Amino acid sequence: MAEVIAAADNVIERYLRCLSANDWDGLATTMVDKGLVRDGPFCDIVEGKQPYIAFLRDVFSRLPGYRLTVQRISHVSERLCYVELTETFEINAVPTAYPECIRFERNNAGLISRVSVYMKRPGDVPGVEGGRAL
């Protein structure tokens, strides 16, 4: 079992390296060929490896000064991993940071089968009074 977890660990790290470098071919090697699902922070769904990579290419082509910084990788099991990271890119020439958590699910071979993105919202106003910690 330790070998399976180690192999799966490498897939997540490789995904992050490839994403940061806009290495779309390398990124594709980390994912299942069929059945990939990406659910995003706006409850948006992308199904399939090629549609997901096309989505990322399109989004990243619009992000000047993009930088990905990983704070923590938590391998829960051979199938489940959480990555806390910050994506930074320029808005009106000002670097703006977006902290988030990505949940990865892997298949039996250790390849990524589901990507779920959860974003924090710095400076946003909570929907209920008292919803912000002091």
Automatic annotation (TrEMBL):
Residues 12-114 form the SnoaL-like domain. This is SnoaL-like domain-containing protein. It comes from the Bacteria. Pfam families: SnoaL_2. InterPro entries: NTF2-like_dom_sf, SnoaL-like. Transmembrane segments: none annotated.
